[in-house]
Write a structure and sequence with these properties.
homodimer; 341 residues; alpha/beta; 434 Repressor (Amino-terminal Domain); Rossmann fold; 3 domains; 12 strands; DNA-binding
Chain lengths: 341, 341
DNA sequence: TTGAAAGCGATACCAG
DNA sequence: CTGGTATCGCTTTCAA
């Protein structure tokens, strides 16, 4: 008699089903292959027995043999930065769901504080991921290298590869800056300023460029620009305080992302600048909080759904074509979202 | 001459390394097995060649053979609900990082609107996940069943299995309600109320129970309790409006989660109840926004780090012991976080 | 349409 | 310590 400890049933294999159904292992395999040449009746029989026994093809074994024909693990690596900005989770959940809808499985890597990114990547690669979506902010280059070395297709999401070696799908950040400037100009503001994220942050930098260039075309030659160690609410708050101290006449502000903008808004309020008449503020991303009644932040929305769809399409295509050369960069247009009025 | 299309190098296998290093495949395998009995010099040689050729053991193949000895895919399924509450992403990122630190890989499932949960679960199961962490809110039962049927260890995180068939790690929600009540009583409030999430929501319900029972012990027998279709900011806002309409004398409010509480706070402010003297508010979770200067929400923090650690420990243990019977429920104590004063 | 047999890439057992 | 061999679970020729 067995002990109660080995309650876990041995995995049911194709052989088990074959034996029970009185057919060969091949037949079982065929029953689970849509286009296989197999008699309908045989298939039904097999599937019936399979259901009865609770058999499911082992994806590990399947991928192993199919790897002869090309990659087919069905696994996609998702490299995601930390959720320090409320925009990231939103982005991430869209991405996951899109992958899922495609019948693929997301294997996740999040660089933690220890910087164990490399280990984690190695592990994913060992699982023969077919491709990678990289949305890891500043850690993207490392991740990019890892996949590039393997010839595994990868797509950057939300940022661009400085060396242009892999495709990238992102929001047109210069356009973001330009439209932010347009908005503030339309409001007849006299003293606009900018609060950005990390000085080396690509997106932040491009938004700043678009912003100040547009302004300079209208005669604003010196626009105060502050940068921060990150893209957080707290940084926005601090930066706005500093801005008010150093440039008390400021009457319009563009922040590189909503998190910064929300922080800035609270700092402005704390300083008594509560009315939209005295001060214009605009952010970028369109995080859920921006729509909260307490904030009503005007912002430039990133086209999340499009970004995700395009990135996935692109990745799937390059997996299918087995080409990682000829990288492309796709810049999608942000959408202006007017609030607070 | 090959065309430029087949630029992707064929995967390097152990045989390639063996041949090049002048040893057997077994030797290569041993070189990559920490405790294997192999001459240090041989190992170094092999590793050198491996590095040179860019060889990495194929995890798929490895898991396949190791499955003889027991589960060893290194894969853990993470079933996560939608990120409709800012607490979820926070939770999720902690979980992922913890898994990663353990050298495991997270395979993610997020039930999307279409309810394709079953398909996605089937897929994960096919990949021979060793265990599952289920933090999917209301969809947990389905997910639980799927893993239970396979005898795959699973742990519920943040909620409990109504039928008590799998282990669960969660915050002590009754204690949350009790301490919330204590706080409001300490403030000498006369007319406390409660705003919860879904009426059938387990956590919300337990928090409510703890809350009203504690209050009733002090003589409050009829406490207005509102429920909502979800746990969102918007619902909190609406519910608070309704509360102020139906019970204008309310002077203290406990919300089942911070998202609801933040919404309620904005509704209170919009109604002119701005001062902490006139109105006490307390939430639960301790999401990042609760600490923002604009809110300064007093709340009962869920011990995220502990929850994650315990859940993982528990899962690993039951994977190792191969037992899915004798489920346990662990309730961790919330931490009171006093703000706004 | 079907079954037998040959792998996919790696590990573990067994002699040497 | 080392190399040969069986095996993991599945798909895929190749004949029949």
């Amino acid at each position: 008699m067995k002990t109660s400890a080995d309650q876990r049933p041995r995995t049911v294999t194709a052989s088990d089903v074959a034996r029970r159904a009185g057919v060969s292992r091949s037949a079982v395999s065929r029953a689970f292959t849509p286009e296989a040449s197999i008699h309908p009746r045989t298939r039904e029989q097999v599937l019936a027995v399979a259901r009865e026994l609770g058999y499911r093809p082992n994806a590990l074994a399947r991928s192993l043999v199919k790897s002869k024909q090309g990659p087919s693990s069905g696994l996609i690596a998702v490299v995601m930065g930390e959720f320090d900005n409320p925009f990231q989770p939103h982005f991430f959940s869209q991405l996951t769901q899109a992958l899922q809808a495609q019948g693929r499985v997301a294997m996740l890597v999040m660089p933690d504080a220890q910087g164990s990114l490399d280990d984690a990547l190695e592990r994913l690669i060992a699982y023969q991921v077919e491709g990678a979506i990289i949305a890891a902010g500043s850690l993207s280059p490392e991740a990019t290298n890892a996949f590039l070395a393997l010839g595994t297709p990868a797509v950057l999401l939300g940022r661009e590869d400085p060396r242009g070696r892999v495709s990238a799908i992102l929001t047109d950040n210069r356009a973001v800056g330009e439209r932010a400037a347009d908005y503030l100009l339309r409001q007849q503001r006299k003293a606009p300023a900018f609060i950005g994220g990390r000085a080396d942050g690509q997106a932040s930098h491009e938004r700043q460029q678009g912003f100040i260039e547009t302004l300079s075309r209208t005669g604003f030659n010196t626009v105060p620009c502050l940068s921060n160690p990150d893209y957080s609410y707290a940084s926005g708050y601090r930066a706005a305080q500093q801005l008010l101290r150093d440039h008390p006449d400021t009457d319009a502000l563009f922040c590189a992302c909503d998190a910064l903008a929300l922080g800035a808004m609270d700092a402005l309020r704390a300083a008594g600048k509560t009315s939209p008449e005295q001060f214009s503020l605009i952010g970028c991303d369109d995080v859920p909080q921006a729509a909260w009644p307490g904030y009503q932040l005007t912002t430039l929305a990133q086209p999340v759904q499009q970004l995700v769809t395009q990135a996935l399409d692109h990745l799937i295509t390059s997996i299918a074509s087995q080409r990682t050369d000829s990288p492309e960069v796709l810049r999608l247009t942000p959408e202006f979202v007017q609030r607070q009025s």
